[in-house]
Every structure is written in C-alpha cells, then in structure tokens.
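Why do we care about 3D structure at all? Because function follows from shape, and shape follows, mostly, from sequence. That is the central idea of this module. The next example makes it concrete: a single protein chain, its amino acid sequence, and then its structure expressed as tokens.
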Amino acid sequence: MPRRNRKARRPNQRPRLFHPESRRESRRNQRELETYLANPPLEPASLEPAPLEPAPPLARECGNCLDWLPPPDSLAAARGRCIHPASGILAPPADTPACPHYTPRR
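And the structure:
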C-alpha cells in the first residue's frame, strides 16, 4: 500500500494557487514580452493601405440617372424611358444630356 502524506494544512497557511505554466515558462514569457515592448518590430511599408483615388464622375446623361428605366428586352433596339415628368422626353436615347431633374447613380 502506498504511503500517503498525512500532513494537514496549517491554519494560517494560504491555499496553493494553480498556475497553468511553470515558473520557468512564466519567466521566459515575461522576458519575451519585455524584449518585444523594448524593441517593437518595424512594420513594412507594403502593409499600409494605398490612398483611395476618387471615382471619376459619371457624365450627366439620361442613361446614368436613377430614374432611367432600361428597355424591357435588352436584345431589342428599343430605348429606355425617363420617368421624370418634367423632362419633356418620354424615351430619349441613353446618351442624351440629362434634364434638370437628373439624380446621379451612387
């Protein structure tokens, strides 16, 4: 039968805390952290995001308007429709300059 340690904890003794890593590992981790904080690695310039260039503005044409309805059949030679009531043209060609009620696409 194996021997057992029958010593009980002393009344004023603190309970032992469980540490998931050994003392050696914790010292090594602490040293690595201190080294990293003292000499952070340099970030390469290639990781910086490139500056965004603004998109070229769309031409003010009826075909680029939000209120432009394309023809129902894309294979037909039909033109689309402008649904602005004040445009004065019901079915202008797509490259017609836009009316004053032009609403650009986003």
